[in-house]
Design a protein that fits this description.
This protein is mostly helical. It has a single domain, classed as Vanadium-containing Chloroperoxidase, domain 1 (Up-down Bundle), CATH 1.20.144. 73% of the residues lie in helices and 0% in strands. It contains eight helices and no strands. Helix 1 packs antiparallel against helix 8, helix 3 packs across helix 7 and helix 5 runs antiparallel to helix 8.
């Protein structure tokens, strides 16, 4: 087998979020029973309490936080001489942000007709907070940490940010699921793009040790 050819497991990692993203965009919205049921459970009738906590949490998925975090991560990678990884990070988070905006206009899905506890003016699908936080935090965890703790903590943060969007009444659950899936798809693609470099580095180390 060609070492550069993607393995079936890698293809599955790409295919699974792609299918989830497409399905969320296809069936979600006010006519989707899952969306209305989950929104009814998570979205409170009045602000305060859980929604107040969600308001603060959701800012961790806003551009005012994500862009400086990604820039700091890229700067650190450049300082360590990891130019390709820094480029992959910048390209990925930028592409996701642009493509999410395009998707919103193409899908044209209206936001839930409930009280919004945060002002939003764009279309609903996919959730930009979910997609952008997934692309940023998950990719940073893969690039900057070597243990499973980093990606696990990043995943918890990304899931929490996504749930906060439903609590605040500004997204359907399928918007968030679609955003998570699209962000995960971007991270998987970025990691796959780095695979040949990792393989070459590993082979170089093996030859050197031999």
């Amino acid at each position: 087998m060609d070492p550069a050819a993607p393995r079936p497991s890698a293809i599955a990692v790409i295919l699974a979020p792609a299918v989830l993203w497409f399905g969320a965009g296809l069936v979600g919205g006010p006519a989707f029973g899952f969306d209305t049921a989950v929104l009814a459970v998570l979205h409170p009738d009045a602000p305060g309490g859980w929604s107040a906590a969600a308001w603060y949490l959701t800012w961790l998925g806003d551009w005012v936080v994500l862009i400086p975090v990604a820039a700091a991560g890229a700067a650190f990678l450049l300082w360590r001489g990891r130019w390709r990884d820094a480029g992959v990070l910048v390209l990925t988070v930028t592409a996701v942000r642009v493509l999410v905006g395009l998707q919103k206009h193409v899908a044209g899905r209206a936001r839930p007709d409930v009280a919004h506890y945060m002002a939003e003016t764009s279309f609903s699908f996919p959730s930009g907070h979910a997609a952008n936080s997934a692309a940023t935090y998950l990719l940073l965890a893969l690039l900057l940490t070597r243990s499973r703790a980093g990606p696990s903590l990043a995943l918890i943060l990304v899931l929490s940010i996504g749930v906060s969007r439903v609590v605040l009444g500004v997204h359907w659950p399928s918007d968030v699921i679609g955003g998570w899936a699209f962000g995960a798809l971007a991270v998987a693609a970025a990691d796959m793009a780095r695979a040949p470099v990792r393989s070459s580095a590993a082979n170089g180390e093996s030859a050197h040790s031999g």
